[in-house]
Amino acid sequence: MSVLRSMCERVAERVDAVARKWLSRPTAKDDVTPAELMVVRRVGLGAVVALPLFPAALATLVPASIALPAGSALALAGALFSGVAGIALVRRIAGDRPDLTELAPVRDPADDLAIYDRFVGLVTVHDRAGHVLAVRGRDQAAYTQWMRPLAGRGFLDHIHVSDRILFLRALDGLRQGAGSQSVELRFERATLSGEQTQFVHMRCDMTALCGPDDAMTVVVQTRDMSAEVLLRQEAAEKAAQAESANEAKRRFLAAVSHELRTPLNAIMGFSDVLAGEYFGRLENDRQREYVSLIHQSGSHLLSVVNTMLDMSRIEAGRYELIAEPFEVRGVVKACEAMLKLQAENKGVQLTSRIARSVGELNADRRAVQQILINLVCNAIKFTDRGGLVTVDAEADGDQIRLVVSDTGIGMAADKIALIGQPFMQIDNAYSRSYEGTGLGLALVKGLVALHGGRLTVESRPGEGTVMTVTLPVDGSGIVPQPEAQLVPPAPVEFPPRLTTRVDGGRQAAPGEVALRQGGTAHGPQAKSA
């Protein structure tokens, strides 16, 4: 068995030697591949087997003198064709697989940084300590024109002293594992004169890159954001001015309202005295008419002042609600009785309908009555003679709906969205035929919001308006007012005792004294703070 194996190995070596000479390629690095030798071995083995079989098979069909040369020729031709086809196939397959070692070019490390030249702003590459290793960026020339050399600590030296801690803190976050950081810094830039420095606001987007052997580099993209900072400052100033103006408006309205109420009460009181003729009769009816007009005008102006005061308190968050349970029926009937005469004088019919299911409501009674009075007065004002104003009250689960409807002039759809804005009128300012300040519905909207309810309006021009106020029955929607943080006053000693120290803790000079409760010195040598 070993003899047969050694003979086969020698034959294979001989075949391989012949095949290498036959298959050698002068332009190839490798002489012959193992796959090509395997094809030659298999083709040779097949030729050895086919060489006696083909003539024997043909001898059964043709004479032996013809079968022997023809069969041998067919066997050799088939072996030669199979060998050429197999080797060509092996080389084709090997040619489709590129040699990666030949395709991979040797890259220059500087080429890896060339991509940063397309980035906006200034791009700097730093090491773990923050030292600059390379300077890139699309706007590199614009920045380096006014900057000193950035290599090493040059980048850090450009940062304002108070902002360097922000940059170092962000760099430390990258060292601890954060993928990216973003900080806003101020860079020092020398002016043309060189006598002073100005600050340029920059935004630095920092990204950590890990290389071989855990070597970390930091890519920092720096962009000028001075315009953005300026816009932010302007927006903050505008917001502060608007808040100051709004606060001034609130204080003005409150002060004016308080200052006007006192003389208005006097005007109304003295007009009542004149109308009652307590100190003598008036001469004629015209004098009585004038006194009545004075009283009516004072009453109207006082209601406007009270409404303005209530609005300023609501806007300032100082309107205090006193919740208590009360009968809704009583409030509706009181409102109807109060405004019945006004409706009759206008020629408008005022009615109310209260469902049996309506019981008590836990809310501020005065505020709810003010809501109804404002809505009914508004409905009467915008309803022509012969019209109808109806007040409905009904229960809807844990809520109560108060509905005031009229058959007045109505409102357009674009005007409904403006309801609740102070001093807003539904008719044109040049063609107004209804007096009013536009504060009534604004006050209603504010009072309803304080109760946690909602106000809905449905109206059509020429057909009328329906205003619905929905309030929680149990008063759970009432907005709690913030409790004032009162600082207890410091105890005052009387008579005040004199101390031997003044502001700053220094000893009082001769002739200087300081009150224990004060803090500033008095005397011939006292100094102003």
Automatic annotation (TrEMBL):
Stretch list, region Disordered: 502-529
Key words of the record: Kinase, Membrane, Phosphoprotein, Transferase, Transmembrane, Transmembrane helix, Two-component regulatory system
Domain of life of the source: Bacteria
Alphabetized SMART domains for the sequence: HATPase_c, HisKA
Any one GO molecular-function label of the UniProt entry: kinase activity
EC numbers, comma separated: 2.7.13.3
InterPro entries associated with the record: HATPase_C_sf, HATPase_dom, His_kinase_dom, HisK_dim/P_dom, HisK_dim/P_sf, Sensor_HK_Regulatory, Sig_transdc_His_kin-like_C
SUPFAM superfamilies (alphabetical): ATPase domain of HSP90 chaperone/DNA topoisomerase II/histidine kinase (SSF55874), Homodimeric domain of signal transducing histidine kinase (SSF47384)
Transmembrane segments: 43-66
Domain Histidine kinase span(s) in chain numbering: 255-475
Catalytic activity: ATP + protein L-histidine = ADP + protein N-phospho-L-histidine
Matching PANTHER family: SENSOR HISTIDINE KINASE RCSC, TWO-COMPONENT HISTIDINE KINASE
Name listed for the protein in its UniProt record: histidine kinase
Organism: Xaviernesmea rhizosphaerae
